[in-house]
Structures are given as C-alpha cells and as structure tokens.
Fold this sequence. Notes:
By secondary structure, the chain is an all-alpha fold. Helix content is 75%, strand content 0%. The protein contains three helices and no strands. It has helices at 5-25, 33-58, 67-90.
Amino acid sequence: MRNKKYSIWSCVLTILGFLLIAMSYNTPPDSHVISVLLFGGIGILALSIILSVIAIKRGENGKLRYFTLWFIPLVVVMVTIVPIILMAAFGFNEP
C-alpha cells in the first residue's frame, strides 16, 4: 500500500484555505489583514490542488486524493447558485 501523505495534506490544506477565505469576509473592511487572508487562502487552495494532482500521479490508494478536485468546484458552484435559488424562492425585491 502506498503512503497517502499527499492526499491527506491536500485535504487539510483545502479546508484551511476555505477557512482563511471565510475569515477574510468576517474581517473589518479597514483592516489590512483582509488581503493577507484572502490571497493566503487562494494560495493554499492552489497548493492543495497541486498536491492532489501529485497524489493522483503517484497512484495513492483511496478516494481521498480526489477530495480537493471535487470540493473546490462544488463550493464555488454552491456559492454562486444558492443566492440565485434564494432570490427565486423569496422574490427579487431589494431591501
């Protein structure tokens, strides 16, 4: 059995990247920490994609190696589609 080191790190970095991006939305707008959190999260997500591709190329066992490649597009689609569904369900009225 091959070592799953790249796929595990890819999953950990994916979750950490999304947490950093979420934290950037909860930071006050006049703070300079927003750019560090946002671009740090994006960089960590890019690194997790690279680690996932390495895990696939090395032939690591299990489905954990595909977690990043499925999770990132799923979250992006959910972030874009859920507001549209909510607007369609409750109306397009402005507050």
